[in-house]
Each structure stands twice: as structure tokens, then as C-alpha cells.
Amino acid sequence: MASRLAPSLLVILSIFITLSSPTSCHPLDPLTPSEFIHVKTIVQKSYPSQNLSYQYVGLDEPEKSTVLSWQSKPTKTPPPLPRRALVVLRLKMKTLELIVDISIRSIVSKTEFDNKHGYPLLNNEEQSVATELPFKYKPFIQSIKKRGLNMSEVVCSTFSVGWFGEANTKRTIKINCFYKKDSVNLYVRPVEGITVAVDLDELKIVEYIDRFVAPVPKAEGTEYRASNQKPPFGPRLNGAPVMSGDKGFKLDGNTVRLQYH
Q: Structural domain of residue 169, as residue ranges?
């Protein structure tokens, strides 16, 4: 979800950086932070001054037979296999799939897809921009005023429009908005009747319809956090152990080991 509440984060990078070990040695280890930097440098060198949108960056996994052969080496620490990255980009309204060989610092494969093959994953940057567009769009501002709502209490999120067999489609998403005043459970307080569609390649609103005005559901009774619940609605653990912090598991490089007592 991309919302007005959270800053834009590169989720793919943050996940891999968190779980990666700087001393990766197994062929299936995720890319390390330094490898991500190398990949970005290699790609930008091949596409200078281009407005690239990174939709996915991850390890291009070697074939199973290659990994098994590597594991069967008689030495305790076999020499590392060449490291490659799979990169999916959007460039000039087309999707590019690149294979980057980090070992030789070069792009070794490039496949271009037209939009008839679907679209790649959304990234947080474009979703964050899309969710801000309604707040600068005069018809939306008027719609919020017409409902008597405080604009500072409105947040918006992105949702897929789906695909229903159309021969020609655009890379669009729909924007749904919610009212967060007096409640953290914003999804139960939708601002209904408003349809917003955004073209992600052009990052502009391409459809806007205000069909009807409906009252926003009340905030009362929407609290869902266990820490704020009162008996008898609070959690009943019945003596079950609670694992917190670093207790209960151990992170060994890229391996999570459970600790049972």
C-alpha cells in the first residue's frame, strides 16, 4: 500500500538489504547492498540521462543443476559462481527485462516487452506520487468540501484496476480515499462515491467521477489494536509463550533458526 501517511520506500531494496549478509557465499544468497549499487551503476551507464523506473531488482537464480554441481565440489568452500541480477524497468512506456552480470559488470541480456504482455510490479515511488495527485486536483478538492470533510484528515491508497480481456489497456490504477479522523482503522471509513484513475506512466489523473455523496461511517467502535482493547475483548494467551526481541529465533546470515526451549 502506498498512502499519504508513509514516505516513499524502496521496499525491494529494504527487504534484501535487511536480510543480506555482506559475506554472502551461497549461489542462492540474495543480493548484497554493494551488489545493488553495482547493478544500478551498470544499468545507468547503459541508459545515461534516461528516466528509468525500477520495478524489480533481485537475484537471477542459477539453474538447479549448476547449484548442485557447485555443492558437490570436494573443497569445503567452492569458488563462488558468477552473480547475476534480474532487473525489470519501465522506460518510455515499455517494459525492459535485463540480466546484469555483476561479475563482469555488464548487461548480458535484454528483452523488451510491449504492453500486450501485461505490466510489471508497481513500485512505491510511483504509487506515492499517484496518491498525492488528488490533493492538487480541483474537482477532488471540491468533492471533499461538498462532503464537509477536513482535507487534512483524508488519505488515499492505490488499488489495481484488474484486467478483463481488453485488447488495449493502459497502465492505470484506481485511487480510493479514506477519512482517518478519530480512528487508526481508516479502511472502515471510506470516502464513497468518488472514482479516480491514474495513468502510472504519465502520472496524471485520466478519469474522475463524483457519482454520489454518502456519509462516512462513524469512528466509534473501529479500534482494532489489541493493546487498546478492554476486557472482554483483550487477547487471552492462556499461558502461551510470547517471543519478543531476539528471543525465540536466531538470524544466521540469511538463515533464520528457531530456538525451542
A: 124-210
Residues 106 and 137 in one domain: no
- pTM here is 0.73
208: left (phi over 0), alpha (psi -120 to 50) or beta: beta
- 190 pairs with which residues across the strands? 178
- Beta-ladder partners of 175: 158, 196
| Residues sharing a CB contact under 8 Å with residue 82, sequence separation 6 or more, in sequence order | 101, 102, 103, 104
Q: Are residues 113 and 166 in the same domain?
A: no
SS3 255: strand
Q: DSSP letter at 215?
A: P
Indicate the residue type of 57: V
pLDDT per position as a tens digit, 168-191: 788 999 999 999 999 989 899 999
Radius of gyration from C-alpha coordinates of the chain: 24
C-beta atoms surrounding 78 within 10 Å: 15
Structural domain includes residue 101: yes
